[in-house]
Amino acid sequence: SRVALFGGKDSCYNMMQCVAAGHQIVALANLRPAERQTDELDSYMYQTVGHQAIDLYADAMDLPLYRCFIKGTSVNTGRVYVTCEEDEVEDLYRLLKLVKEKERVEGVSVGAILSDYQRIRVEHVCRRLNLQPLAYLWRRNQEILLKEMISSNIQAIIIKVAALGLDPDEHLGKRLDQMEPLLLELSEKYGVHVCGEGGEYETFTLDCPLFKKKIVVDSSEVVLHSADAFAPVAYLRFLKLHLENKASRLQISYSINTNHISNSL
User: Fold this and answer.
1) Which of 125, 133, 142, 251 has the most beta carbons within 10 angstroms of its beta carbon?
2) With left for phi above 0 and alpha for psi between -120 and 50, is residue 139 left, alpha or beta?
3) How many Cα atoms are found within 13 Å in the side-chain-facing hemisphere of 187?
4) Which pTM does this prediction carry?
């Protein structure tokens, strides 16, 4: 049995790869900003934008969700991580320790693609807890990965932009399939990481084949985090969301060019 560290498209797609490899996802885990903190933490480790909606994932997948507050900061930023009580990595340790005690999990699904910083620290935590890290996306070609995510019916939207060529008013809330041509173009022009591994953008998953229900955004607002003239940093704050039952899993999927997409297995 496995626990999935959950949030954006990468963690969702890695979870799908875990299931395809025969692993069973028994719980979800997520770290969120401490109360009274901003939605967007300048964390080296964690995606925090969109944290208000994470609770819906538990209902969408019919799985228990374990959450802890991020109390630490990026204290130990060296290439080799050494345990430091004030570091945010220890928040992950406490979260996964709790999940292991409650659910008796043996492994952790991790959506890391390129970040050695994240990989080294997750592996450090897993070794201490005798858990197996499962990172099926590690070092894979990002253009191929993005195409696979789209073709696998992962319905993820852009909830943060922080790169040259990405405009908050134009691109926040757009689906991956709508953004793919631009992301490929920005990769050619400016070296933007197609899957956002350089922090260029972050996503929130609304639906995927593992969901029993889909998440619908009723209302949201754009929050400007940094008004840089060339690469403004902004994110979506969800104001109201709800879950909807999905169409029959036997139903054939619509074209990805339509606005409403149903998943089929």
Assistant:
1) 125
2) left
3) 17
4) 0.86
CA atoms within 13 A on the CB side of 18: 26
pLDDT for res 51: 65
**Helix H or strand E encompassing 239:** strand 233-245
Between CA 157 and CA 29 the distance in angstroms is 20
**Beta-bridge mates of residue 156:** 205
Positions of the chain with pLDDT lower than 70, given as ranges = 1, 6, 35-51, 248-265
What distance in Å separates the CA atoms of residue 59 and residue 185, rounded to the nearest whole number? 37
Query: How far is the C-alpha of 176 from the C-alpha of 158, rounded, in Å?
Result: 7
Q: According to the model, what pLDDT value does residue 82 have? A: 84
- The rounded Cα 222 to chain-centroid distance in angstroms is 19
The whole-angstrom separation of Cα 63 and Cα 220 is 26
Strand pairing class (155-161; 25-33): unpaired
What integer pLDDT is reported at residue 259 of this predicted model? 29
